Amino acid sequence: MLKDQPSDRAKREANKAFKPAKTQKPMNDYAKDQHSLNENRERLKAERLAREAQPKGRED
Fold this sequence. Notes:
Number of helices: 2
Helix content: 55-70%
Radius of gyration: 27 Å
Shape: elongated
Distance between the termini: 80 Å
Number of strands: 0
Largest sheet: none
């Protein structure tokens, strides 16, 4: 029994070192819509802030 312990320990160490990478679940339609909505809102917000930062007398 003592003979098996080091190999078990080595297996556990190897499993810890080589854990499979966590994969993301595929998005469902609702999550895709929410992601698109959030990206679009952030883009529009950045454009609005850029417009507001321009001097009032200058229109580009």
